Amino acid sequence: MLRDGQAVNEEYKRWLENSTEEMKEELRRFSPSDIRESFGLDLKFGTGGMRGILGAGTNRMNAFTVRRATLGFGRWISERFSNPSVVIAFDTRHKSAHFAEVTAEVLSSMGVKVHLFIEPMPVPVLSFAVRVLKASGGVVITASHNPPQYNGYKVYTSDGTQAVPRFAEEIIEKVEKSDFFENYTPDKTLIENVPNSLLEEFIETVKKNVLGLCSDYDGLSVVYTPLHGSGNYPVYKTLSDLGHRVKRVEEQTLPDGNFPTVKSPNPEDLNAFSMALNVAEEAEADLLIATDPDCDRLGIMVKHEGAYTAL
């Protein structure tokens, strides 16, 4: 919904009255153009969730837009399940862990059981956890491969997949009827951490499902970079256990929401491979692999006729 000038100013004033002190300070520094950009419309919640620039306002990713999205998703889940439960994961971006906590608290206030990962986790692990824990749905705080100033909110249904259009439309309707400043009281007894054993179970399941496919390619020399994202341990562990010689790009293994070594943490962008290529030349690697911050996007380069070529 696009707001006119008067509606923009009214919403801006409402946020000045109801936001946290930290956000109020940010709002007071806004120029007229900042106000229009941040309050001219609401951050769109689409079929895959929502994604936007971090900051104050209805058109930005912040704790209040996350609250509203969670209220809508929680109401949809609660109508479909008598004992609803949700798994929550997050990537390495700025405020991802905080937004995951907000999501957990809001859902618990609605009587929804929450399984919360306490460390950055790949999207495929979230999908796996939804099914293993027999949850009603899932949420991942991530903006995928976008630049550092972005974050986002993805929702998943009980089969571990992103909501199909019909379900997405129902969720969107619930979100649009929710308010940024609705009060809630968390029920900490409904929030529990996902055990580390689930990640190990995921890795073992992947290995069992690919062993027969990899028999002709034992002992490859692989260079891997998680591009400062959540794939570091799971990908390295899986490939190593399968018998491959894996060397990581050490400068890109530490989680860092600034993604300081790349222009964009997108493994489809060949520029993201620049450091990996240097390591690969030294290691005489057969294969280069890069994953994005939430580890659901993959880039691969192989050696062909003496040079590395992207697949």
From TrEMBL:
The keyword Isomerase applies. One of its GO terms (biological process) is purine ribonucleoside salvage. It comes from the Bacteria. InterPro entries: A-D-PHexomutase_a/b/a-I (IPR005844), A-D-PHexomutase_a/b/a-I/II/III (IPR016055), A-D-PHexomutase_a/b/a-II (IPR005845), A-D-PHexomutase_CS (IPR016066), Alpha-D-phosphohexomutase_SF (IPR005841). GO terms for molecular function: magnesium ion binding; phosphopentomutase activity. Its cofactor is Mg(2+). Pfam families: PGM_PMM_I, PGM_PMM_II. Residues 43-180, 201-306 form the Alpha-D-phosphohexomutase alpha/beta/alpha domain. Keywords: Isomerase, Magnesium, Metal-binding. PROSITE patterns: PGM_PMM. PANTHER family: PHOSPHOGLUCOMUTASE 2B-RELATED (PTHR45745:SF1), PHOSPHOMANNOMUTASE 45A (PTHR45745). Belongs to the phosphohexose mutase family. This is Phospho-sugar mutase.
